[in-house]
Each structure stands twice: as structure tokens, then as C-alpha cells.
Amino acid sequence: MLAMTSKNKRWAAWKNRVCIPALVLLLSGCGLTQTVTDSTVSATKSLFYKQIKVLHLDFTAREALNTDEHEANSSSEPVMVRIYQLRDDKTFLKTVYQQLASDGEAALKDDLLASRSVVVKPGGAVTLDMPMEKETQFVAVVALFRHPDMAKDHWRLILTLDDLHPDKPRTLELGNNSLTLRAEKK
To answer: Where does the signal peptide begin and end (predicted)?
Structure first.
């Protein structure tokens, strides 16, 4: 067997005192770097991307609401409005009025995260505060008018997260047989 020389002994001692601790620090630094990176990403998202925890929508209705244009003296009627939180909007955009009127939840089941319904009376207003699901990417709003304008598609709206504000409600206006999103006040 080879006897350890003093040079080999010094190398072994140096290796034990310096290399092993340096290696341990280096490897633990990788985890530290990942932790710092994760927290930086979280901080950036919270600063630059608005996190909406509650969906705030205000519905206002004109006196002439849900009228029948075929009748001369058509009276205004309340309107059922359905609100859907969706993962994706493709299925919603493909559905027709009759599908959403009869069973919207079944028609949207693959993308649906949450839903609510409100009734808006002529000349009235309704406020909706609904917990926002984390996976929500789109908010779909459907007004179930007696005679919706199918050509203009004014019976439904799709809102992206950019259309929403975490603290202020967006106002949707119902009049005659149309649903519109009011422009935001700057």
C-alpha cells in the first residue's frame, strides 16, 4: 500500500475543509435561487397583473326593456341575466341562444367554473358580487330577452380579465332587446 505523503494529507484535509462545504453551499444556493426566483415572480404578478378575487358587475335597465317589437303597445318585462365564469370562450361563442336559454350550464359544462343568475326589472338596477374562480379567463353574460336580436348578437357579451377591475364594478346596460357594456370612466 502506498503511504500517504504529507502532500496527499494536506490535499485531503483541504478537500474536507474547503471543497465539501463549498459544494454544499453551491447546491443549497440552487434551491435558494429558485426560492428567490419564485418570490420575485409572485411579487411581479401581484404588482403588474391585477388579481380579481370578486367579480363586481352592476346591471342597469332602461324603462323600455324586453319589449316585443311586433306589438304596438308592448309592455316592458323583466329580463333574466346569466353570468358564467369560463376557462375558455370558444364553446360559448359557438353556442346559440336556444342552447343557453334552455340549459346554459350543460352547454358550457367543459369550460364552466361558476354561474349566477339575476333578474333585472325595467328601470331597475342589480348589483352582483360573485367570488372569482382562480382559473377564470372569461366572464360571459347572457340576457334572455323575449325577442333577442340574433343578427347583431346583442343578447350576450364576453368579458376578458382585462375588461374587469379588482375593486370597481363594470356596468352593463339593458335596454329594449340589447345588452351593452358601458365604457369605463377614466
So the answer is: 1-33
How would you write the pLDDT of the chain (186 residues) with one tens digit per residue? 556 677 677 767 766 777 777 777 666 665 555 555 556 655 555 555 678 999 999 999 999 888 877 666 678 899 999 999 999 999 999 999 999 999 999 999 999 999 999 999 999 999 999 999 999 999 999 999 998 888 898 999 999 999 999 999 999 999 989 999 998 776
β partners of residue 157: 141
pTM metric for this prediction: 0.72
Contact partners, residue 75, CB within 8 Å, separation at least 6? 67
Give the Cα separation of 82 and 172 in Å (integer): 12
For the chain, the structural domain boundaries read 1-49, 54-181
Is the distance from CB of 127 to CB of 111 less than 8 angstroms? no
Which one-letter DSSP state was computed for residue 161? G
